[in-house]
Specification:
The chain is α/β, with parallel strands linked by helices and about 250 residues long. It has 8 helices and 7 strands; from the N terminus they run E-H-E-H-E-H-E-H-E-H-H-E-H-H-E. It binds NADP nicotinamide-adenine-dinucleotide phosphate. NADP nicotinamide-adenine-dinucleotide phosphate binds next to helix 1, strand 2 and helix 4.
Length: about 250
């Protein structure tokens, strides 16, 4: 198992769902965790308590990462608490699904700010410290929807495709400072985010998955832990789909 002792990880949107799973997995491997949340303080504190129960160190930090000042304060809080930030996981995300003719401008703006601008905000705040230390691991949680598209998700798909562009450009920018930037693209994972998807769409998706089942948060977290590890030191600018084979190529 990849070991992350001595590393400090900031996981955005770690109060619930996939982010929670990532926080717990990185903690299991020895990293100190900053559990970022926006509105779910109790859930974030419960993640911190779970990490502490397994002998780890963690801190919950409220920040709306869609706002640059908040993202900057998040990285500062992590650095103040643990001395450095080695690993950043840009996981915070949301959906406002709607066909384009019905989609409101605010649905576009909210999704772009929460999913894409947030990643830029947090990277911008974290990269300086990583450059100074000549070490960093940035992992962006995109989606198969950003690779293949999905009807009703023009905003979400665009934000997730944008994260892939951000991943590749930043990977090129910081590679000579021993910082890697990769993306993980989950397929369908049951969480609060996917709970409201129409049943017929869920059936359609399930039929298209070669492994014939949904993924789980741990399976996404394992891929993130790999990119965060020293074993992945020669991998940058890549997108790894964790989707049961839904999107190949
Ligand atoms: P989720 O269960 O809805 O959890 C979303 C998390 O993001 C929560 O912890 C939430 O925090 C946080 N968040 C939302 N807006 C935020 C903001 N402005 N600032 C800080 N945190 C914010 O979603 P999920 O399914 O775990 O998804 C996690 C990531 O995986 C997302 O980027 C999503 O697009 C991606 N993804 C999910 C799936 C899937 O099938 N579930 C598939 C592909 C990709 P609070 O509760 O504190 O507000």
């Amino acid at each position: 198992m990849a070991q992350l002792e001595g590393r400090v990880a900031v996981v955005t949107g770690a109060s619930r769902g996939i982010g929670r799973g990532i926080a717990l997995e990185l903690a299991k491997r020895g990293a100190k965790i900053v559990v970022n949340y926006n509105s779910s303080a109790d859930a974030a504190n419960a993640v911190v308590a779970a990490i502490q129960e397994m002998g780890g160190e963690a801190l919950a930090v409220q920040a709306n990462v869609a706002v640059l000042d908040d993202a900057t304060a998040l990285i500062k809080a992590a650095t103040d608490a643990f001395g450095q930030v080695d690993i950043v996981v840009n996981n915070a995300g949301t959906t406002r699904d709607q066909l384009i003719m019905m989609m409101k401008e605010e649905d576009w703006d909210t999704v772009m700010d929460t999913n894409l601008k947030s990643a830029w905000n947090v990277c911008k705040a974290a990269v300086r410290g990583m450059v100074r230390k000549r070490y960093g691991r940035i992992i962006n949680i995109t989606s198969v929807s950003g690779i293949a598209g999905q009807a009703g998700q023009t905003n979400y798909s665009a934000s997730k495709a944008g994260m892939i562009g951000l991943t590749k450009s930043l990977a090129r920018e910081v590679a000579n400072r021993n910082i890697t930037v990769n993306a993980v693209a989950p397929g369908f994972v049951p969480t609060d985010l996917t709970a409201d998807l129409p049943a017929d769409l869920k059936d359609q998706l399930l039929n298209a998955i070669p492994l014939q089942r949904w993924g789980n948060v741990e399976e996404v977290a394992y891929a993130v832990a790999f990119f965060a590890s020293d074993e992945a030191s020669y991998i940058t600018g890549q997108v790894l789909a964790v989707d049961g084979g839904l999107v190949m190529g």
